[in-house]
Design goal:
The complex is a heterodimer of chains A (about 250) and B (about 450). Chain A is α/β, with parallel strands linked by helices and about 250 residues long. Helix content of chain A is about 35%, strand content about 30%. A 6-stranded mixed sheet of chain A has the order 6-9-10-3-11-12, with helices on both faces. The relative contact order of chain A is 0.19. Chain B has one domain. Chain B contains 10 helices and 19 strands. Chain B has a 10-stranded mixed sheet, covered by helices on one side. Chain B has a 9-stranded mixed sheet with strand order 3-4-6-8-10-12-14-16-18. In chain B, helix 8 packs across helix 9. The N and C termini of chain B lie far apart (about 50 Å). The chains are: A alpha/beta (about 250), B alpha/beta (about 450). The interface of A and B includes residues 53, 54, 104 and 112 of A.
Chain lengths: ~250, ~450
């Protein structure tokens, strides 16, 4: 079976600094893959490169999503193909109403896929259901995107976007950071509810804690820009015990 | 040497002098009005067109930008009147009372002067010259900015305009929309002078729109004097959507009484060279003024907003929010001066001007000035200029929103922050629709 995402020998620099150095990774449809690793190992860079952030320069390698090389695609094209990045630090967009943002995003993706735009009542129903499940108050939806939101609210808003956009591959970049235990559960429920045989998730995290709630099928350890170890969910527990020091030495 | 060079009049200055001499006998008004015109023209003639060494015009060198003077516009013929019928379409849904001036001349058949609300009087300037109403003006109005060069030229040449009076306590619900249209075929100059005189406790909303055909070479000099009585509530909105070849000079002179509410907003979406001047003076305590504007500029448009807010008396609050969006080789100028007189304690004034540059070749010059003579005041100003935030654009694009649409969302948000200051919801929507249309046309 062809993996949903296949990364081969990926080399990435930012401002001339090498971050990813020959990263190989495959994620199968139906799987939740956890990516763990010490600070500076390239976890967030990987997330940004997948989403298409412009300042990252890919100097070698390829990224196949559903068999198609996405590196030359604009971020919005990748999103329409079903790739979603939940940002580690979701941005505030003053003056853009959350509902406008959600609707524009949803309809832009539908349009690109040749699907009809959602009617207002259908859209409202969709948002109401999804936000209800995530404990997002209607009052929050009336505000500008993430403006005046707490850290936890911003993360929940990311998960709301994910729930609405129903991506085929969700990349969650340290979505657990800054979340209390209740918010963590809500976020995990959001990710778990997307689990299906034709979708996959990449959960990037520094700590094992989130993986108690989102149980991964595969755990990859990233160090100095490469995957240095791959294992089952027990690898996360092992890391919790031993820390990352061993892997940093290995990579060096 | 320099003195000799200065003695040489520019082509435009010479043409204005010739035009004034020849038009004088036919310009409306009695001997007293003629004397007023003479004085004003002499004031202009002595100073000449302002240039970059005149501080108030530093970034808008009128001597360079106004290469010649156009002949006075002729009154509109039938076809000009007919073409003006569709003017101001952007505001059609407001249900406003429309008053129309074409080529600077009143057009009664395109003006809705029937069934005026109690306490509302509207007459054209031409009529006011004939019946002497021209001189019935509160003394504190008519002295503001009278030495300004644009105002001097306006006074010298004013042909027509609208005088709106709102009597004490009258609540005029229906907005009044004064539609200014240029519909001439030949290059021409238009001079209109209007007044909005609102007595104590009254309420009214005035919208002015100024438009003309693309590619036509014409000049507009428009001025409005505003008097806001104690406890009155006045909303004023000016929409400048002149044609691509137009030079548009505009001056608002407002004197505001105590415990009043005055809002003015300028939206600029057209014209080759636009200068919007606002001279606003607080004459009574406990008044709140919201002064704002937004401009969308492209091609080689030059748009200057020059503001003087005079806190001549204490206890008033002013909020200034101006935004400009600049594409191509356009140039935006914002000069905002807040004066707080020595006795104007407890003044609360905050000014913000922001420019969003969409092109490497666009230029924004912002010059905030605070002149504070009182010691117990809250005053602040801010000015920013920058490009669209690439991180925000990436965030929007990562959600599937294409670049152009993402930029449009952000530009709308940027402009929207200023447009929010308009109290009338229908007008806010009309302006934001116009913003959307501008963005959609952007390549």
């Amino acid at each position: 079976m062809m993996p949903l995402l296949e990364i081969k020998n990926l080399h990435v620099e930012i401002d001339g600094k090498k971050i990813l150095r020959g990263l190989d990774l495959a994620v199968n449809a139906g799987d939740v893959a956890a990516i763990m690793g010490p600070n500076g190992s390239g976890k967030s860079t990987l997330a940004y490169v997948l989403a298409g952030k412009p300042e990252y320069e890919v100097t070698d390698g390829e990224v196949l999503f559903d068999g198609e090389d996405i590196l030359a695609m604009e971020p919005d094209e990748r999103a329409a193909k079903g790739l979603f990045l939940a940002f580690q630090y979701p941005l505030e967009i003053p003056g853009v109403a959350t509902m406008t943002f959600l609707r524009t995003a949803l309809n832009a993706q539908r349009k690109k896929r040749g699907e009809p735009e959602l009617s207002t009542p259908d859209f409202m129903r969709l948002v109401r259901d999804a936000s209800g499940k995530l404990g997002i108050a209607p009052e929050m939806l009336r505000r500008a995107v993430n403006v005046g939101f707490s850290g936890g609210e911003k993360k929940r808003n990311e998960i709301l976007q994910m729930a609405l956009l129903q991506p085929r591959l969700a990349v969650l970049d340290e979505t657990d950071s800054g979340l209390d235990i209740d918010a963590l559960r809500i976020v995990a429920d959001g990710v778990n509810s997307l689990r299906s045989p034709n979708r996959a998730s990449i959960v990037i995290t520094h700590y094992q804690r989130l993986l108690d709630y989102i149980v991964p099928d595969v755990v990859h350890v990233l160090s100095r820009g490469r995957v240095v170890k791959t294992g089952g969910k027990e690898l996360a527990l092992e890391l919790e015990q031993t820390g990352y020091a061993a892997f940093q030495d290995e990579a060096a | 040497m320099n003195a000799e060079v200065r003695a040489m009049k520019t082509a435009a200055e010479q043409a204005l002098a010739t035009a004034f001499a020849s038009a004088k006998p036919t310009l409306p008004g009695d001997a007293k009005v003629a004397a007023l015109r003479d004085t004003a023209f002499r004031r202009f003639d002595a100073a000449g067109l302002p240039h970059r060494r005149v501080e108030e015009w530093k970034y808008t060198d009128l001597r360079a930008l106004m290469r010649d003077a156009k002949p006075l516009a002729v009154p509109p013929d039938d076809s000009a009147r007919a073409s003006a019928g569709n003017a101001g379409a952007m505001l059609r849904d407001l249900g406003a009372r429309r008053i129309t001036l074409v080529n600077g001349c009143a057009v009664p058949e395109l003006s809705d002067l029937l069934d005026l609300e109690d306490g509302l009087a509207i007459e054209f300037l031409g009529a006011a010259f004939r019946n002497g109403d021209f001189w019935a003006i509160p003394p504190r109005v008519g002295v503001l900015a009278s030495d300004d060069v644009a105002v001097s030229l306006n006074t010298a040449f004013m042909t027509d305009g609208v005088i709106i009076r709102v009597r004490q306590g009258a609540m005029i619900e229906r907005p009044i929309h004064v539609v200014h249209v240029f519909a001439g075929e030949e290059p021409a100059a238009v001079f209109t002078r209007s007044r909005l005189l609102v007595e104590d406790g009254a309420r009214v909303m005035l919208v002015e729109s100024h438009e003309g055909p693309a590619g036509k070479d014409y000049q507009v000099n428009t001025a409005i004097e505003v008097s806001v009585g104690a406890g009155a509530h006045v909303d004023h909105v000016k929409i400048t959507s002149e044609g691509t070849g137009a030079l548009h000079l505009s001056t608002l002179m407002a004197a505001i009484g105590a415990k009043a509410r005055f809002n003015t907003f300028g939206f600029v979406i057209g014209g080759a060279v636009v200068r919007n001047q606002l001279f606003i003076r607080f004459d009574g305590e406990d008044t709140v003024a919201g002064i704002g504007g937004a401009g969308l500029l492209n091609a080689r448009q030059h748009v200057d907003t020059t503001l003087v807010v005079d806190h001549a008396i204490g206890g008033c609050q002013s909020r200034e929010v101006f935004k400009s969006v600049l594409d191509d080789q356009s140039h935006a100028v914002f000069q905002g001066k807040i004066i707080v007189r020595q006795h104007a304690q407890k003044t609360d004034a905050k000014m913000m001007s922001r420019a969003l540059l969409l092109s490497e070749d666009a230029e924004a010059d912002h010059k905030p000035e605070l002149e504070i003579f009182a010691d117990d005041v809250q005053c602040g100003h801010g000015a920013t200029a920058g490009a669209l935030d690439q991180n925000l654009l990436f965030y929007l694009k990562a959600r599937g929103i294409p670049a152009k649409e993402a930029e449009a969302l952000m530009i709308q948000a940027f402009v929207g922050e200023a447009v929010e200051g308009i109290e009338h919801a229908g007008l806010r929507e009309a302006i934001m629709e116009s913003v959307s249309a501008w963005l959609a046309a952007r390549s």
